[in-house]
Design a protein that fits this description.
three-stranded mixed beta sheet, 4 helices, alpha+beta, 15% strand, extended
Amino acid sequence: MTKKIPRDSQNDYSKEIVQARQDFFSEHSGKPLEHLKYFSFDPANAQGNIEHFTGVAQVPLGFAGPLLVNGEHARGEFYVPMATTEGTLVASYNRGMRLAHDLGGVTVTVADDAMQRAPVFGFENARQAKQFAHWIKDTLAACKWIQEEYLKVGKI
């Protein structure tokens, strides 16, 4: 029987349950989770942002900027943190931000604030994807009944 990931129905973000999950995955993988278990915040702060919180991963971090922002809600110079392992990425963004700064900065606005979930389709090649896109376009109107019959949330 497959073992379930440890959970605590009362407090799934306590240090004890996090430790139990770390022990579980260490035992399951046969490897110690040396770096995963060191973090500098209370696991309760992760509630609502991640399920089965088990630790953190260290990712190289660099800063680019400053980016001069002329926004509705944010104005000024901002240094932008970038977590990446792609060499020259931070330097490339830094050059772009310097050029934008020299030209007066970037003007930004918020057009919408939303979270979306959407299906993903995979194809063997681009031609199949193109055929599917045409099929969807031709078929969508005929599928409106699905929304009315089955969907409680969302639109087609």
